[in-house]
Amino acid sequence: MLVRVQPSAFDPWREVLTYQEAQPGLAGKFGATTVFVGCLRDFNQGNAVAAMTLEHYPGMTEKHLERVCVEAGQRWEILDSLVIHRVGPLLPNDPIVLVAVWSAHRDAAFLACRYIIDELKTRAPFWKQERTPDGQRWVVPE
Amino acid sequence: MKTITVRYFASLREKMGRSEETIDMEGISCVAEVWSKVSHEPLPANTLVAVNQDYVSWRQPVCGGDEVAFFPPVTGG
Fold first, then answer.
1. Which residues does chain A have within 8 Å of residue B72's beta carbon, measured at their own beta carbons?
2. What is the pTM (predicted TM-score) of this model?
3. Does residue B66 contact residue B52 with C-beta atoms inside 8 Å?
4. Are A54 and B76 within 8 A, CB to CB?
5. ipTM of the complex as predicted
6. Which residue in A has a C-alpha nearest to residue B20's C-alpha?
7. Nearest 5°: phi and psi at A137?
8. Cβ neighbours of residue B60 closer than 8 Å, sequence gap 6 or more
9. Does B45 lie at the interface with A, CB-CB under 8 angstroms?
10. Among residues A108, B13, B37, B65, which is most buried (max CB within 10 A)?
11. Quick check: B7 and A124 CB within 8 A?
């Protein structure tokens, strides 16, 4: 299990492969990998979005992301999970978040991946501020 | 003297005009009283609160050395 919050851009597909290859316990054991990648759109709630800044609560964010991944492992038979989340300034098309889950069979990987991203959205302390033609605005949950 | 560290994030940080402060614990026993000490305004609706980086309710007791954080609903992912 790995949780990483970082200001630098990342390639989610490369990260999945790099992490997977570095886990000796995974080789030959997983039959399923599910991957969720969230990217920045150039529109939101009816407005064009030119850029975004993501703020977080260092320490608390990682703690809650790790807790969510542990919970997923308790609920479903998964082998491993990986979460990477950007902070700081982002541009449209940038990957914001990666959630990857490995399991022997597909059901556990699908369900655990969905659980992790859904819980992340309601529990991990991140805040998005968008730059639109009307200025900066904090995103409010829908 | 016992103190509490209070932190603010995102829109609440901007509203408060500061990201962090240290307050004297005297007369404070719970999270609601921490807010009363740092602001004369009612708490903005939907504000979340954490003590030592765990979500808590307004009635949560606080102790010297605690870190209390106030912030708006989260929007990650």
1. 127, 138, 140
2. 0.96
3. yes
4. yes
5. 0.96
6. A57
7. -145, 140
8. B30, B31, B49, B51
9. no
10. A108
11. no
